[in-house]
C-alpha cells in the first residue's frame, strides 16, 4: 500500500490505473486518490498511447511510464482485461454460435477469460446452449430476473476482476447492468445510465470501480465488441483458442494435422465420440477456412 502523497509535488512518484481517458487527459485511480494527468510527449513519439486499464507510474504530476500490459483490445480501447462477459439472448436475437465462438477465440487468444451470460431464458429453453459451453469448459451463467440469485451470481463473478460486457444489440446488456448495479453497487453512479445514449458517437472506454475491488469497463453508448483486422488469429494458432481441444492436440496421426479433413485425427474422433461439441468444431472449421485466406500483411498488424 502506497502512503498518501501529493501527486503534483516535485519528486513524487505514484502508481495507479487509468480509469478514464479523454482528449489526452487521463484519470488515474491510485492508493492516494483519483487524479487527472497528462502523459509525457515521449509516448506519442514512440507511437505508444496510454489506454484505459493501463497501470502507470506518475512522476512530478505527469504519466512517466506504462507498466507492461497483460493484453489489450483496440475497439473498445482497453488494456489488462481479466474477463469478457458475452451476453447472449435465447430469443430475438437468437444465438449466433459462429459469431460467439469467434469472439470467444479472440478472448482466449488475448488471454482474457471468456464467460457466457445467457438472457431471455424465460422465452426459450437455454439447456442446449448451456450444455455446449459447459462441455467446452467455459463458465456459463443463466440470468432469470424472477430468480434474484441468478443476477447476484453474475455480480459476484465481477469482484476483484477487470471485466467488460459485450453482446448483440437487444441481447439484454443494459437490462443486465441495471439489475447488476443494484446488487453490485458500482461506484460513480450507474453504468446503465450511460448505455444507450450517444450511441456510436464516442469510442472511449471507462472503468467503473466495483465495491469490494475490481472494475467493470464500459464504453458509453457503445458496448458491442467488434472483430476487426487486429483480431485475426493465424490458422496454426486457432486450435489453441478452443480450450476443450487441448487434450487432443498432438494426438493426431499427422504432426501438422489441421483437424479439418485428415484421417486419424484425434480431434475429429473426439467430436464423433461426443467429447467435443459439434457446433464448436464446426466453428473451428469455418474460422480455419477464413484464416487460410489471410495474407501475410494482414497478419503483421496483430
Ligand atoms: N423476456 C425477457 N426480456 C428481456 C430479458 N433481458 C432483456 N429483455 C428485453 O430485451 C430488450 C432489449 O434489452 P436491452 O437490455 O435494451 O438490450 P441491449 O443488449 O442493451 O441492447 P442495445 O442497447 O441495443 O445494445 C428489452 O425490451 C428488454 O426488456 C430477459 O431476460 N427476458
Ligand atoms: Zn487432427
TrEMBL record:
It comes from Ruminococcus champanellensis (strain DSM 18848 / JCM 17042 / KCTC 15320 / 18P13). Residues 70-225 form the CP-type G domain. Gene3D superfamilies: Nucleic acid-binding proteins (2.40.50.140), P-loop containing nucleotide triphosphate hydrolases (3.40.50.300), Probable gtpase engc, domain 3 (1.10.40.50). It is an enzyme of class 3 (hydrolase). Binds 1 zinc ion per subunit. The keyword Electron transport does not apply. The keyword Nucleotide-binding applies. Zn(2+) binds at residues 252, 257, 259, 265. Monomer. Associates with 30S ribosomal subunit, binds 16S rRNA. GO terms for cellular component: cytoplasm. Keywords: Cytoplasm, GTP-binding, Hydrolase, Metal-binding, Nucleotide-binding, Ribosome biogenesis, RNA-binding, rRNA-binding, Zinc. InterPro entries: G_CP_dom, NA-bd_OB-fold, P-loop_NTPase, Ribosome_biogen_GTPase_RsgA, RsgA_GTPase_dom, RsgA_N. It is found in: Cytoplasm. One of several proteins that assist in the late maturation steps of the functional core of the 30S ribosomal subunit. Helps release RbfA from mature subunits. May play a role in the assembly of ribosomal proteins into the subunit. Circularly permuted GTPase that catalyzes slow GTP hydrolysis, GTPase activity is stimulated by the 30S ribosomal subunit. Transmembrane segments: none annotated. HAMAP family: GTPase_RsgA (MF_01820). Belongs to the TRAFAC class YlqF/YawG GTPase family. RsgA subfamily. Residues 79-223 form the EngC GTPase domain. Its main location: cytoplasm. Its cofactor is Zn(2+). GTP binds at residues 119-122, 167-175. Its EC number is 3.6.1.-. One of its GO terms (molecular function) is GTP binding. It comes from the Bacteria. GO terms for biological process: ribosomal small subunit biogenesis. PANTHER family: SMALL RIBOSOMAL SUBUNIT BIOGENESIS GTPASE RSGA (PTHR32120), SMALL RIBOSOMAL SUBUNIT BIOGENESIS GTPASE RSGA 1, MITOCHONDRIAL-RELATED (PTHR32120:SF11). This is Small ribosomal subunit biogenesis GTPase RsgA.
Amino acid at each position: 500500500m502506497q502512503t498518501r502523497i501529493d501527486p503534483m509535488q516535485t519528486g513524487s512518484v505514484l502508481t495507479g490505473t487509468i480509469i478514464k481517458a479523454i482528449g489526452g487527459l487521463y484519470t488515474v485511480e491510485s492508493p492516494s486518490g483519483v487524479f487527472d494527468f497528462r502523459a509525457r510527449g515521449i509516448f506519442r513519439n514512440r507511437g505508444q498511447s496510454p489506454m484505459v486499464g493501463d497501470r502507470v507510474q506518475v512522476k512530478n504530476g505527469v504519466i512517466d511510464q506504462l507498466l507492461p500490459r497483460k493484453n489489450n483490445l483496440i475497439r473498445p480501447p482497453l488494456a489488462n482485461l481479466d474477463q469478457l462477459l458475452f451476453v447472449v439472448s435465447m430469443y430475438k436475437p437468437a444465438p449466433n454460435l459462429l459469431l460467439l465462438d469467434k469472439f470467444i477465440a479472440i478472448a482466449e487468444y488475448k488471454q482474457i477469460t471468456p464467460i457466457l451470460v445467457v438472457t431471455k431464458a424465460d422465452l426459450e429453453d437455454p439447456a442446449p446452449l448451456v450444455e455446449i459451453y459447459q462441455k467446452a469448459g467455459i463458465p456459463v451463467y443463466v440470468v432469470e430476473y424472477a430468480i434474484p440469485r441468478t443476477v447476484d451470481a453474475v455480480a459476484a463473478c465481477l469482484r476483484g476482476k477487470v471485466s467488460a460486457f459485450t453482446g448483440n444489440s437487444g441481447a439484454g446488456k443494459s437490462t443486465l447492468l441495471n439489475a447488476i448495479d443494484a446488487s453490485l453497487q458500482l461506484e460513480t453512479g450507474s453504468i446503465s445510465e450511460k448505455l444507450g445514449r450517444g450511441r456510436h458517437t464516442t469510442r472511449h472506454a471507462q472503468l467503473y470501480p466495483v465495491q469490494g475491488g475490481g472494475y467493470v469497463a464500459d464504453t458509453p453508448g457503445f458496448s458491442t465488441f467488434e472483430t476487426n483486422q487486429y483480431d485475426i488469429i493465424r490458422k496454426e494458432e486457432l486450435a489453441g483458442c478452443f480450450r476443450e481441444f487441448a487434450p487432443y492436440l498432438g494426438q493426431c496421426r499427422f504432426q501438422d494435422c489441421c483437424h479439418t479433413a485428415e484421417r486419424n485425427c484425434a480431434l475429429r474422433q473426439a467430436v464423433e465420440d461426443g467429447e467435443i461439441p459439434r457446433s464448436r468444431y464446426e466453428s473451428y472449421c469455418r474460422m480455419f477456412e477464413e484464416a487460410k485466406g489471410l495474407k501475410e500483411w494482414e497478419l503483421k498488424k496483430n
